[in-house]
Input
Amino acid sequence: MLIQYNPKQRLKKPYNPILGEIFRSYWYNPKTDSKTFYIAEQVSHHPPITSFYVSNRKEGFCIYGTILARSKFYGNSVCAIMDGSAKLILLNRGEEYNISLPYANCKGILIGKLTMELGGKVSIDCPKTGYSTEIDFKLKPLLGGLEASNLIEGKIKFAKETVAVLNGKWDGEIVLQDKRENKQITLWKPDLKVIESRLKRFIVPLDEQEDFESEKLWLKVSEAIKISDQNLATEEKCKIETKQREEEFERRAKFIEFKSKFFTYDSINKEWLYNYSDLRPWDPQNDLYQYESNFKILTKTKLNLK
Output
């Protein structure tokens, strides 16, 4: 969500995902010669629900989940709340980790310096192993300096036993204290080497994208924002939303229910599932590489070379 401010008008949100909007991208890791694919779709507009699927079978992980986005305004700040959760699956271990999400807090919308923080408690648990953790993302206090920003602290537990504690900054160094072995280690530190090794994100060229892919769908809005033309951005946004309302009215008139293209709702487990999900461990004897075709994440194997 991008907030736009005009002193003569109210706050505006040029980007507001529409029903059926889709997005895809991937990251290439030269060290493992593998790609991590990301697929997302707006499966509901009221309420606004996004489902996503991330896969890299060669490196042994898959992440999927659903987010219901909502926002709260507090005068000079806005809070983007992500209701929902994600599942991280370690394919070779057969372990599933349930992960909740923090919220984003943006300050300085009207006056002051524009800043963004993460806040709230994030829980992670693995039913198979019995391990869990709760991490507290702390907002900077009113009178705190830079040293008080982006702080986190948490505990790692096995059943009810606290086996380790961690603290630091989510955008800086995080230290873990192992209570069992009574030692301290650096869990995460984004030094220059780490920053330089960040993987580049790739997307499909605009001329090859479908009409409902995010970058193509919002192209004219993005172009207007880049030249600081707020009126044009709002006008282009309204065109997209008007068309969406007309399509919804037509579906209702014909008693047609909207059906998402790439995700299906599992009413038993109450979750949205990617239609082409593949949770098999990587088979180096048969699997060659993963690829994406028309939003389908597939695996090329020695058996299907032809």
User: Anything to note?
Assistant: DSSP finds four helices and 18 strands in the chain.
